[in-house]
Structures are given as structure tokens and as C-alpha cells.
């Protein structure tokens, strides 16, 4: 009888260990709520309270979702992950005196941020600071109130930045800006901006050496500089199409002999200086509208359409 009892106890303990093991595993999908608790497993019925609390319980390539409105805190991302605040409510990150999101992931990691507000409350550093990873996709995001950059993209190796239908505004410190791209000496940056509004920032878009950027259906307005390609030692390119550069001190600038900006179907209006080559090449495809600026300036060359 005792032997049977010992065997039964052993079976129960083994079963408990077996069924308890998955609770320690990271989930593919986790949840946060304004009334959650980071001590929870971050499930739909027991959500966490912050993105930082959820990310440690979310598997690589997994997704963090929000259940209800809330401020879910700054977060550092070190793996492939998606953070999606969709659902018709406000999902925000408040980042006073710090960065909203820091990304320092692996060379093959893809990070996606969707449907969230990143608020620097007037004294935050950068909305998003990217140091390493394969690709960052920012979609339907509002970034505002920072003293430095809305998106500070400085990858150590070759990386890609995709920004879709996003508004970046009110980042007006001495080092302020909308999107800043400066890959490290061993890297290159590939940038796609579609439907991006950079308004009331020190610079709408600035790219540095070894960057190739495409801008489509976007507006850069009321900045010190709308868009600038600035190259010191290697080529950098901005291709702008179906977009507007308006009411800036400088609409568009190519700074340095290796800098090229190409314009197609672009409106350059109401700037103090519309087009400013400053040693670089501003290439027009002959279908732009440059007018109403204090000084219009002119492209350095025009390429016939084919």
C-alpha cells in the first residue's frame, strides 16, 4: 500500500512539472492594459501593465497588443518583435527625460511599431533610437514633444528603416529633428518614408553618408530645414516624389560634393530659401513647382522624363 502511495505521489509530481513547464515559456502574443500588472503572465485575461514588462514574456518574432487606452512606458527592444497599439484607443509611451524606444537588436531582427503615440512631454530625448537590427518598420505612429530626434536611426551595420503614415512634430531643441539617419562606418542605411508628416521640427529629414532614402507622398513643413542630404566622405541620396516642402527656412538642401537630392512632382513653397544646393546636386525631373519662396533657388540640373 505504501509503495502504491509513493508511486502515485511520484506520478502527481511528474505531471505537475510537465504541465507547469509551458507557463515558464514565452508567449507568441502578449497583452498590456492600463489596469494590468507586470507580475501577470501578460495573457489576454491577465495582462501586463507596461511594454517593458511584456517584452520579457514575449517570444522572439512575437507580438505585444494593447487591450485598452493607457500609457505603457518606455521600452528597450533586443529581438524581433511587433508592438501594436491598434484597436481604436490611445496606446502611448510617455518618455520624460529619456528615450521612448531604444532598439539594440540582432543583425537579422525585424522590429515593427504600429498604432502608438510616443510623447516626450517636452523634455524627452529621442522618440525612437535605433542602434542595431535588420529592419525597423514604423507605421501609423505619432511622435512628438522630444528635444532631440523623432527617429534617430544610427545602425552600426547595414539596416533598413521604413516609416509609413506617421506624424513627427514639435521636436524643436538645438539637436531636434524629425528623422535623422547616420549609419556607422561599417554600415549603410536604406530608408523609405511614405505618408510622413514632419512638422515643427528642427529638421524634417537629414541623411548622412552611406544612406539611400526615398520619400513619397510626404510633407515637411515649418522646420528649419525640410530635407537635407549631407555627405562628408561617402555618397548619400534622397529621392523625393509627390511631396511638399513648405514654410521652412530652407526647403531642400544637398550639402557636400557627394550629396544628391532628386525631385519629382514636388512642391517647394513659402520657404525662406526653396532650393539650396550648397555644394551638392539637386536634380529636377522638370515636373516640380518651385515658387512663393523668399529666394526660390534652383536645381543644379534637370533630367528629361522618359
Structure overview:
This protein is mainly β. The chain has a single domain (63-302), classed as Pectate Lyase C-like (3 Solenoid), CATH 2.160.20.10. Helices cover 9% and strands 51% of the residues. The chain has helices at residues 2-24, 51-55, and strands at 27-32, 58-66, 70-71, 75-77, 81-84, 91-94, 101-104, 110-114, 117-124, 128-132, 135-139, 142-146, 149-153, 159-171, 177-181, 189-201, 203-207, 211-216, 219-221, 225-230, 236-246, 250-255, 259-269, 273-276, 281-284, 289-291, 301-302. It has an 18-stranded parallel beta sheet that branches. Strands 4-7-10-13-15-17-20-22-24 form a nine-stranded parallel beta sheet. Helix 2 (51-55) links the parallel strand 1 (27-32) and strand 2 (58-66). It is elongated, with a radius of gyration of 24 Å. The N and C termini lie far apart (92 Å). Mean pLDDT is 92; it is low at 1-23.
Question: What are the SSEs and their pairings?
Answer:
Layout: H1 2-24, E1 27-32, H2 51-55, E2 58-66, E3 70-71, E4 75-77, E5 81-84, E6 91-94, E7 101-104, E8 110-114, E9 117-124, E10 128-132, E11 135-139, E12 142-146, E13 149-153, E14 159-171, E15 177-181, E16 189-201, E17 203-207, E18 211-216, E19 219-221, E20 225-230, E21 236-246, E22 250-255, E23 259-269, E24 273-276, E25 281-284, E26 289-291, E27 301-302
Parallel strand pairs: 1-2, 2-5, 3-6, 4-7, 5-8, 6-9, 7-10, 8-11, 9-12, 10-13, 11-14, 12-14, 13-15, 14-16, 15-17, 16-18, 16-19, 17-20, 18-21, 19-21, 20-22, 21-23, 22-24, 23-25, 23-26, 25-27
Amino acid at each position: 500500500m505504501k509503495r502504491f502511495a509513493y508511486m502515485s505521489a511520484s506520478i502527481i509530481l511528474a505531471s505537475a512539472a510537465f504541465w507547469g513547464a509551458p507557463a515558464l515559456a514565452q508567449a507568441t502574443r502578449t497583452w498590456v492594459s492600463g489596469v494590468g500588472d507586470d507580475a501577470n503572465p501578460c495573457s489576454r485575461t491577465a495582462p501586463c501593465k507596461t511594454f517593458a514588462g511584456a517584452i520579457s514574456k514575449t517570444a522572439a518574432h512575437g507580438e505585444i497588443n494593447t487591450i485598452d487606452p493607457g500609457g505603457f512606458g518606455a521600452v528597450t527592444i533586443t529581438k524581433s518583435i511587433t508592438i501594436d497599439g491598434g484597436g481604436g484607443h490611445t496606446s502611448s509611451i510617455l518618455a520624460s527625460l529619456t528615450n521612448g524606444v531604444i532598439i539594440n537588436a540582432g543583425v537579422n531582427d525585424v522590429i515593427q511599431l504600429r498604432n502608438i503615440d510616443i510623447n516626450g512631454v517636452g523634455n524627452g530625448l529621442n522618440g525612437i533610437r535605433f542602434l542595431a537590427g535588420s529592419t525597423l518598420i514604423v507605421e501609423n505612429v505619432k511622435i512628438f514633444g522630444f528635444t532631440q530626434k523623432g527617429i534617430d536611426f544610427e545602425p552600426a551595420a547595414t539596416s533598413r528603416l521604413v516609416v509609413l503614415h506617421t506624424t513627427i512634430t514639435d521636436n524643436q531643441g538645438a539637436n531636434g529633428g524629425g528623422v535623422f539617419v547616420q549609419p556607422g562606418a561599417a554600415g549603410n542605411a536604406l530608408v523609405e518614408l511614405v505618408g510622413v508628416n514632419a512638422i515643427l521640427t528642427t529638421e524634417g529629414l537629414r541623411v548622412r553618408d552611406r544612406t539611400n532614402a526615398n520619400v513619397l507622398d510626404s510633407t515637411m513643413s515649418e522646420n528649419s530645414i525640410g530635407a537635407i542630404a549631407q555627405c562628408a566622405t561617402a555618397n548619400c541620396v534622397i529621392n523625393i516624389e509627390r511631396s511638399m516642402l513648405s514654410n521652412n527656412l530652407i526647403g531642400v538642401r544637398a550639402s557636400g560634393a557627394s550629396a544628391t537630392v532628386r525631385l519629382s512632382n514636388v512642391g517647394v513653397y513659402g520657404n525662406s530659401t526653396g532650393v539650396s544646393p550648397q555644394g551638392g546636386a539637386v536634380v529636377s525631373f522638370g515636373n516640380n513647382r518651385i515658387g512663393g519662396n523668399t529666394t526660390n533657388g534652383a536645381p543644379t540640373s534637370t533630367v528629361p522624363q522618359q
